[in-house]
Design goal:
- The structure holds two protein chains of two kinds.
- Helix content of chain A is 33%, strand content 23%.
- Chain A is of the alpha/beta class.
- Chain A has a domain at 82-151.
- Chain A has a six-stranded mixed sheet, with helices on both faces. A three-stranded antiparallel sheet of chain A has the order 2-1-4, covered by helices on one side.
- In chain A, helix 5 packs across helix 6 (136-147) and helix 8 (194-200) crosses helix 9 (234-247).
- The longest helix of chain A is centred in the last third of the chain and has 18 residues, at 166-183.
- Chain A is globular and about 50 Å long.
- Chain B has two domains: 1-33; 41-247, MetI-like fold.
- Chain B has ten helices and no strands.
- Chain B is flat and about 75 Å long.
- Chain B starts with a helix and ends with a helix.
- Classes of the chains: A alpha/beta, B mainly alpha.
- Chains A and B meet through helix 4 of A and helix 7 and helix 8 of B.
Chain lengths: 248, 250
């Protein structure tokens, strides 16, 4: 698994010098095998940062390295894949054909079987349901299954559970950790929920308000595998407080 | 079985009102002795239709052939142009104003010119049908091909999808509900275009039948002709709506 190195990233919109900066001098790295969460208040540029790493946006300053590759090279090689805020499933396709979409785009690559992927995310039996027939949480599971198609080494997740209710979210958090153990993948996970970040991450990158800069990097030395009981522990609360004090 | 029953219940109201309307019409014509040339009774119309059934069917068939061909050409051309538009800003910017100008030109004003150019056979009517079907399909196709979730495009780009893959797997399916909304409008418009063409200059078709019959003051046949082309137009619309139900199933 490659190391992700983010070095002095800056992003400003509009012509240079007009001062609409979204990100300023963001540097951090994600070590192989790590689960890294990026948290910050709304509008701090966390999604923009993830898009720069995942080659969906370009930085105006600094550089990103994924192993020895640029984001563009890494995208072409299929090093990473995305899970977005919304499931972005095609409404006219059933689940199995949605999960199989990447196979139609890039033929002949080593890939996981769509059916096995649906089973992995707990959607066995829903192969022929249309997205509209499923809950938001189930749709996001399908999006996760689709993202795992080409054995990605890195998952880029942009607030994937922001739109589901609290109960579904905590359940999906546990599920995500289980799936990550099974498929061995690095995760870069953007969220504005501190509890979610502490529960999932090995390390938390805390971004400041606009323009986003790295305010703190918080280690999360909680033991793995984790389940929901950990949320009640003293350590969990202390780490969450530490993150919170850095945001406000 | 339940669906048939539901349909019968739903259909019974308009059928009842239709029956009353026809009965009042028939009785009124008999009671006030209207001239057949001004207002024929329903029964006169039915008799005229039966007498001229073959001719009515043939002429309706000709007009519908023109309409369907014009519809296919106009809608197909419009969809193709929409695909080009969304991939090329310069083309869209330089051509769209003329498409709007064409839409604003009354068809009836340029009909004589089209007859001069394309003759008084079927071709000129097909052209007129295509012209009226064109614009609504163009507008809604551009809207449908563009109204794609930004995140969906992000997903396709992250998979390094080509523009053709994005077009075929995302944009075109996404545009279908928009497309069919306009196809339903265009199907009715296409018939209007063909009939206007036949009014202007023709040797056959329902428009030709209507003009000649009204010259001879054969009003019952005029009525029958209007009814035939209306029913054919409804059938055309129904077929498009049925196709929509089959295709747009989500």
């Amino acid at each position: 698994m490659p190391e992700i190195t983010v070095q002095g990233i800056g992003k400003s919109f509009g012509p240079p010098g007009t001062g609409a900066a979204a990100l300023e001098n963001v540097s951090f790295s994600a070590r192989p095998g790590e689960f890294v969460c990026i948290v910050g208040p709304s509008g701090c540029g966390k999604t923009t940062l993830l898009k720069i790493i995942g080659d969906l946006a370009t930085a105006t300053q600094g550089s990103v390295r994924i192993g020895s590759l640029s984001p563009q090279q890494a995208r072409r090689e299929g090093v990473f894949s995305w899970v977005f805020q919304t499931p972005v499933l095609l409404p006219w396709r059933d689940l199995i054909r949605n999960v199989a979409l990447p196979l139609e785009i890039q033929k002949g690559r080593r890939a996981r079987d769509p059916e096995a992927l649906l089973q992995l995310v707990g959607l066995k039996g829903f192969e022929h349901h249309r997205p509209a027939q499923l809950s938001g949480g189930m749709q996001q599971r399908a999006a996760l299954a689709r993202a795992l198609t080409f054995y990605p080494q890195i998952l880029l997740m942009d607030e994937p559970f922001a739109a589901v209710d609290e109960f579904t979210r905590t359940a999906l958090n546990v599920e995500l950790l289980r799936i990550c153990r099974e498929v061995e993948v690095n995760v870069l996970f953007v969220t504005h929920s501190i509890a979610e970040a502490v529960f999932l991450a090995d390390r938390i990158i805390v971004l400041s308000r606009r323009p986003g800069t790295v305010k703190a990097i918080v280690e999360v030395p909680l033991p793995r595998p984790r389940d929901n009981s950990i949320r009640a522990s003293q350590d969990f609360r202390e780490i969450a407080q530490c993150v919170e004090s850095n945001i406000s | 079985m339940r669906r048939i029953k539901y349909f019968l219940t739903a259909a019974s109201w308009p059928l009842a009102s239709f029956a009353i309307f026809i009965a009042v019409w028939q009785l009124a014509v008999q009671a006030f002795h209207f001239d057949k040339v001004i207002l024929p009774a329903p029964l006169d119309v039915v008799i005229a239709a039966a007498h001229n059934f073959r001719r009515l069917m043939t002429e309706t068939g000709i007009t519908m052939t023109e309409s369907v061909l014009g519809f296919l050409a106009g809608a197909g051309g419009a969809f193709l142009l929409a695909v080009i538009f969304i991939h090329s800003r310069p083309v869209q910017r330089s051509v769209y104003p003329y498409a709007i100008a064409l839409k604003s030109t009354p068809l009836i004003a340029i009909a004589p010119l089209l007859i001069l150019w394309f003759g008084n056979g079927m071709l000129s009517k097909v052209v007129m049908s295509a012209m009226v079907a064109f614009f609504p399909v163009l507008v809604s196709s551009v809207a449908g091909l563009t109204a794609v979730d930004e995140a969906m495009l992000d997903l396709m780009n992250s998979l390094s999808a080509s523009w053709l893959q994005i077009l075929l797997k995302v944009r075109i399916p996404n545009s279908l509900p928009y497309l069919f909304a306009s196809l339903k409008i265009a199907s009715s418009m296409a018939v209007v275009g063909a009939v206007i063409g036949e009014f202007t200059g023709s040797t056959s078709g329902i428009g030709h039948l209507l003009t000649t019959s009204s010259y001879y003051l054969d009003t019952p046949v005029v009525f029958a002709g209007v009814i035939f082309i209306t029913l054919a137009g409804l059938l055309f619309f129904g077929l498009v709506a049925l196709t929509e139900k089959k295709v747009v199933s989500w």
